[in-house]
Amino acid sequence: LLAAVAGAALAEYPEKPVTIVVPFAAGGPTDKVARDLGDVLRKQLNQPVIIENVGGAGGTLGAAKVAKAAPDGYTVLLHHIGMATSPALYRKLPYDTLNDFEYVGMVNEVPMTLVGRSTLPANTMPELMKWIDANKGKINLANAGLGAASHLCGLLFQQAVKVDMTTVPYKGTAPAMTDLLGGQVDLMCDQTTNTTQQIEGGKIKAYAVTTPKRLTSPALAKLPTLDESGLKGFNVSIWHGMYAPKATPKAVVDKLNAALRTAMKDPEFIKRQEALGAVVVTDARTGGAEHKKFVEAEIAKWGPAIKAAGQYAD
Ligand code: MLT
């Protein structure tokens, strides 16, 4: 009888709207990925897809909310590399990254750019390095809190240039961008999904990209990499994945995964992502088990780098 009931429930799933929790403020890069994805998933799932922004604590509040949500497939998390960096940043996370979620699959990979306020008196990396040297102790670096992608990149950047900056945390890099545009903060390391348009519009200064190779998009191709600018080996790319609460029925997770894989092949989704410098994942990591293995490796990779940079939240 139970199997029949479960089967019947699955046959209907989803029979009501599905909520994607975005653990950052609306308008930022994570939100952008979720909304673009939601536009495609709603076709696959034949139900409305609602985006719920739950910002704060570098994405860990939103992740915790989904870890505790009903395991019925109607509340999922769209998160990123913060899943792998938060275990090294928080002495006690309100969830276990690997065991409190069912891993639905991976979505994309996104490069980052080092950007500054338009009034910053430096236009190139060499000029920026001189400015940083001359302004030690007075530099404000924006991020989206401990566990954010912008936090990870900013932490590694400070370590590479050996200059501690005052970090100003926001609930996402959309509000952070507002202050950068207003000149309230000096620098930020953020995903191309959020910086490309502002760079093209000349509203912020762009200094470098965080990937080992230069980008190909017209707006960003001229930017040097941080590696070629002297920060040898600098290599940060942000990835996004989807997660459901632990104990969500496998058949429901499989249905979500199938919808995700189809979305990864959707020409419109790919076009929107590529226009902002993101690369849609089409390899095995779109599988839940493979993405979980990938996250496990990322936890092992970023933990030591973060501890070496010596930053903890209590
Ligand atoms: C991050 O820094 O983790 C993200 O850019 C935050 C966001 O998506 O707003």
TrEMBL record:
Gene3D superfamilies the record matches: Bordetella uptake gene, domain 1 (3.40.190.150), Periplasmic binding protein-like II (3.40.190.10)
Pfam families documented for this protein: TctC
Annotated coiled-coil segments of the chain: none
Keywords linked to the UniProt accession: Signal
Family of the protein in this entry: Belongs to the UPF0065 (bug) family.
Name of the featured protein: ABC transporter substrate-binding protein
